[in-house]
Write a structure and sequence with these properties.
Aminopeptidase; alpha+beta; 152 residues; five-stranded mixed β-sheet; 6 helices; 35% helix
Length: 152
C-alpha cells in the first residue's frame, strides 16, 4: 500500500462525512443524508480558508481511505509556542487493521514538527478505550484531564 496525503477539496466532503459517521459514536452525531446539510459545507469552507487548519485526506491509488484534521494553535505559553491538535482521525472501515492509522500519525507528527509545533495533542472519547490504547502505543501520554461543556 502506497499512501498519499493531500489537503481535502470540496468533492471529498461526502466521503469524509461518511467516514466520520462510520462507527457507533459517529452515527449518533453526524447527519449523513443527500444532499449533505448546509452546515457541513459552511464548516468545510471555513476550514479550507484558515491557514491554521489542515483537513487532510489519505489516498491509496486514488481511493480515499482515511481523513484527519490538524489544527495549529498559537499560544503565549511555552514562550509563544504552537500546539498542533489532531482530531477526527478516521480510517475507512474496509481498510482498518492495516497499519494506516499508525502511518497517519507518523505523517501528522512530522507535519506538526515542520510547522514548528512543540507538542501534538488530541482528545479521545472515553467510550473508545481501544483508541486510547492505540494512542499510548504511539507514545502519547495521558497527562491532562479534559473537560467539555456542550451547548444544546
Amino acid at each position: 500500500m502506497s499512501l498519499t496525503y493531500r489537503i481535502a477539496i470540496l468533492t471529498d466532503l461526502v466521503e469524509i462525512i461518511e467516514m466520520l459517521a462510520d462507527d457507533q459514536l459517529g452515527r449518533a452525531r453526524e447527519k449523513l443524508e443527500s444532499p449533505l446539510p448546509e452546515s457541513y459545507l459552511q464548516a468545510f469552507q471555513l476550514i479550507a480558508h484558515d491557514k491554521q487548519q489542515e483537513l487532510t485526506v489519505v489516498e491509496d491509488e486514488g481511493e480515499l481511505v482515511a481523513t484527519f484534521q490538524l489544527s495549529f494553535l498559537q499560544y503565549l505559553t511555552y514562550q509563544g509556542g504552537i500546539r498542533a491538535q489532531i482530531e477526527a482521525v478516521r480510517v475507512k472501515s474496509t481498510y482498518r487493521g492495516q497499519g494506516i492509522g499508525r502511518e497517519i500519525f507518523q505523517y501528522a507528527i512530522q507535519r506538526a514538527k515542520t510547522r514548528g509545533a512543540h507538542v501534538l495533542q488530541l482528545t479521545t472519547d472515553k467510550k473508545r478505550p481501544e483508541a486510547k490504547r492505540f494512542y499510548e502505543s504511539l507514545g502519547f501520554v495521558d497527562s491532562h484531564e479534559g473537560m467539555k461543556l456542550h451547548f444544546g
